From TrEMBL:
It comes from Flavobacterium ardleyense. Signal peptide: none annotated. The keyword Nuclease does not apply. It comes from the Bacteria. This is Response regulator. Residues 143-208 form the HTH luxR-type domain. Residues 4-120 form the Response regulatory domain. InterPro entries: CheY-like_superfamily (IPR011006), NreC/VraR/RcsB-like_REC (IPR058245), Sig_transdc_resp-reg_C-effctor (IPR016032), Sig_transdc_resp-reg_receiver (IPR001789), Tscrpt_reg_LuxR_C (IPR000792), WalR-like (IPR039420). The modification 4-aspartylphosphate is found at D55. Pfam families: GerE, Response_reg.
């Protein structure tokens, strides 16, 4: 029986390359293709797949929300995130959302084959980096999303800062003193382990874009 894979990527070269690598190394594969998220949803509504190799940054994509939506149509399908984004920053976010593995596009041919074989046999592909990160978070009782550590007011202020609002605008918007805004801002930076607004924006995009 063929193991059915849907390879989702908007770059033809990537799809062709990965397909050649997998077909050369793994027997009995049936590989289909999709170039955007809308086409992906259409295909999974009318076909069954064992594994979806899913690029994070595809046209029409919905970040981590794609995982739950795909599994609402195919509850037993495995999802391997395939992205150029660095593993350490992005992998946990998608694993936490329900993905079964995360593979960097810069990985060599052997890693691509290893990832697919691992999911075929065990249902998961977790590198040592991901496992160590998961263990660290569990040991330190750290949430996957660091913004979960913020109070409602701190998160509210963080969002306003990300939108480009200054202390004065936030003070007027929330009806609090500017000194209070500064206090909350310092707490946000401390809890997120960041030093400036640029780092706040970058971290926020990781978890909410």
């Amino acid at each position: 029986m063929n193991y059915k894979i849907l390879l989702v990527d908007d770059h033809l070269v990537v799809k062709a390359g990965v397909s050649i690598i997998l077909n050369n190394e793994i027997e009995n594969l049936s590989i289909a293709y999709s170039s955007d998220y809308f086409e992906t949803i259409h295909l999974i509504k009318i076909n069954q797949y064992d594994l979806i190799v899913l690029d994070i940054n595809i046209p029409g994509g919905k970040s981590t929300a794609m995982i739950a939506e795909i599994k609402s149509y195919l509850p037993n399908v495995k999802i391997l995130m395939f992205s150029a984004y660095e593993e350490e920053s992005y992998a946990l976010r998608y694993i936490h959302a329900g993905a079964d593995g995360y593979l960097n596009k810069l990985s060599g041919e052997d890693k691509i084959v290893e990832a697919v074989k691992s999911i075929m046999t065990s249902g998961k592909y977790l590198t040592s980096t991901i496992i160590n990160k998961l263990n660290d978070n569990h040991r330190n009782n750290e949430p996957v999303n660091p913004f979960d550590k913020l109070s409602n007011r701190e998160l509210e202020i963080a969002k306003l800062l990300v939108k480009g609002e200054g202390n004065l605008e936030i003070s007027n918007c929330l009806g609090i003193q500017m000194s209070t805004v500064s206090t909350y801002k310092n707490r946000v930076f401390e809890k997120l382990k960041i030093n400036n607004l640029v780092e706040l924006i970058e971290k926020y995009k990781l978890f909410y874009d």
